[in-house]
Design goal:
This protein is α/β, with parallel strands linked by helices. It has a domain at 84-156. Helices cover 33% and strands 26% of the residues. The termini are far apart.
Length: 271
Amino acid sequence: MIELHGVELRVGGNRLLEGIDARVESGEFVAVLGANGAGKTTLLRAIAGLHPLAGGTIRLNGCASTRLGGLERARLVALVTGDEILLDALFVRDVVSIGRSPHHRWWEWSERKDDAAAVVQAMRAVRIDALAERLFSTLSAGERQRVWIALGLAQETPIVLLDEPTSHLDVRVAHEILALLRGLAGGGKSVVCALHDVNEAAAYADRIALLGDGTLLAVAPPAELLAGSLLERAYGIAMEHVALPDGRLRVFARERVSATADARRTPAPNA
């Protein structure tokens, strides 16, 4: 469970977010949406303890994040990002195995049976078990993305944070990953995922947290959020609402037609 109370975040001395109050339950999948620069990544990093709070508190499974040591936090929270760190000389299985580090003391170097099982299960979950003996440097962007997710899964934490996990993935794999996250929440984990695609969030998340205007505009079920005008406020663009046959809504940016193009489409009046 994640609790945020009056959270304020600054970047370079400038206020990025303030007044953030939210709660993510165990067994819940929350998608974080917002325009570029709204603070999605920084908020995830703050929850993971990698960005300092300028104000407020964050509690993880009842413990104040500031009171947690690094090892304790790593056993509670897995943060999956696409950060480029120097892993090119490692095999895929070795990269995923890094996720087991929080389950060992610094002097413990040998792999245990539960480590091997967790790594294999994580790779199978994102369908990269066939890549286990490939060098990380030889992978495509989409394959690397799946390796990062497997690393986070191998960490076996009750809280999983993901920063744009569907970037670089084709449509099929993206939906497989989101379905996997949906399953993790169903198994009792708290899953928070920053996404760019509004309709992906609507299809899989229990609730959507929408950032905009330097704060949290809403945390609401997809149907409620998509039906209102907050998305237009957050993204600064008009939205078209489309109802699916089962009644669910999907939204798309409204096409902007120039006056010249509009005139071409309008039939000339009869002479």
